[in-house]
Specification:
The protein is of the alpha/beta class. It is built from eleven helices and eight strands. The chain has two domains: about 230 residues, Alpha-Beta Barrel (TIM Barrel); about 30 residues, no CATH class. Helix 9 links the parallel strand 6 and strand 7. The radius of gyration is 20 Å and the shape is globular. The structure holds 3-methyl-2-oxobutanoic acid.
C-alpha cells in the first residue's frame, strides 16, 4: 500500500515528496461537482479543471473560446466536491498572455472565486514574467510545454512536438526556466518519451505527462477521453477504460423503450 494513500490533503509539498520517493502522481480532468466527487473518493492525487472543458463540455473545436468566468464556474463546482485532491485550474486563452499584471489578476480571480489550489498556464520563456508575478502573490503555478493546445493555430497540427533537435533543446531550456522561476510542477504534452524522460530526470519538480511516455513522474488524461464519452478523439497515447458513450446511449435507448411501452413506471414506482 502506498504511504501517500492516507494523506488527508494533497499539497504541492506532497507532490514533491512523491517525486522524491518515486511514487507516480495520478491526475485527471474534471469540470463539475458530481464527477469531481467520484474522482476524489477514488483517491486521485490532482484534479485539473482543464480548458479542455471548452471541447468536452461546451462543444467548441478548440480550447480558445472558453472564458475566465466559465472556468471559474467549472472550478468552483469542482472545489465544492473535493476533500483530498489538489485542484489546479487552467488560465484560459487570452487571460494571461497580454501582460503579467493581467496574468496576476486572472489568477487572483480564480483563487478567490473558486477556492482552487493552483493555476496552470501554457508556454516557456514567453510567460516567465507572468509566472513570476503570479508567484509573487503566493499562487502556485503549474507549467505546460510540448503540444500546447492554446497555440494550435500557430502549430497548425496536433502531431507530436519537439521531435527535431532544435525544438527539443528549446523545450528543455524552457522546462529549466519554469523550474527556476518557481513553478511547482510541469505538464509535458505529446512529446517523445525519451525527451520527457530527460526533462523528468533533470528537473526537481514533478513532471506530469500526457502522451509523453512512462518515465514522467505522473500521468494526466482528459476524463471524457479515458471513459470513452468522446469518440472521435483517438490518439495513440489514449487508453480507454470504458465505452461510456455506448453504455449511456444503451441506457437511454432502454429508457425510451420502457416509456413508450408503458413498462416504466410500474406499480412499485408510483405513489
Ligand atoms: O486542458 C486540459 O485538459 C489539459 C490537459 C490535456 C493536460 O491541459
Amino acid at each position: 500500500m502506498s504511504i501517500f494513500q492516507n494523506v488527508k490533503r494533497i499539497t504541492t509539498h506532497v507532490l514533491n515528496e512523491m517525486k522524491l520517493r518515486g511514487e507516480k502522481i495520478s491526475m485527471l480532468t474534471a469540470y463539475d461537482y458530481s464527477i469531481a466527487r467520484i474522482l476524489d473518493s477514488a483517491g486521485i492525487d490532482v484534479i485539473l479543471v482543464g480548458d479542455s472543458a471548452s471541447n468536452v463540455m461546451a462543444g467548441y473545436d478548440s480550447t480558445l473560446p472558453i472564458t475566465l468566468n466559465e472556468m471559474i464556474y467549472h472550478a468552483s463546482s469542482v472545489v465544492r466536491a473535493v476533500k483530498r485532491a489538489l485542484v489546479v485550474v487552467d488560465l484560459p486563452f487570452g487571460t494571461y498572455q497580454g501582460n503579467s499584471k493581467e496574468a496576476l489578476n486572472s489568477s487572483i480571480r480564480i483563487m478567490k472565486e473558486t477556492g482552487a489550489h493552483a493555476v496552470k498556464l501554457e508556454g516557456g520563456r514567453e510567460v516567465k514574467e507572468s509566472v513570476e508575478r503570479i508567484l509573487s502573490a503566493g499562487i502556485p503555478v503549474m507549467g505546460h510545454l510540448g503540444l500546447t493546445p492554446q497555440s494550435i493555430h500557430k502549430f497548425g497540427t496536433f502531431v507530436v512536438r519537439a521531435r527535431d533537435e532544435s525544438e527539443a533543446n528549446k523545450l528543455v531550456e524552457d522546462a529549466h526556466i519554469l523550474e527556476e522561476v518557481g513553478c511547482f510542477s510541469l505538464v509535458l504534452e505529446k512529446i517523445p518519451a525519451t525527451l520527457a524522460a530527460r526533462v523528468t530526470s533533470e528537473l526537481k519538480i514533478p513532471v506530469i505527462g500526457i502522451g509523453a511516455g512512462r518515465f514522467t513522474d505522473g500521468q494526466v488524461l482528459v476524463l471524457h477521453d479515458m471513459l470513452g464519452i468522446t469518440q472521435e478523439f483517438s490518439p495513440r497515447f489514449l487508453r480507454r477504460y470504458h465505452n461510456l458513450f455506448e453504455e449511456i446511449k444503451g441506457a437511454v435507448e432502454t429508457y425510451i423503450r420502457d416509456v413508450k411501452t408503458l413498462d416504466f413506471p410500474n406499480e412499485k414506482e408510483q405513489y
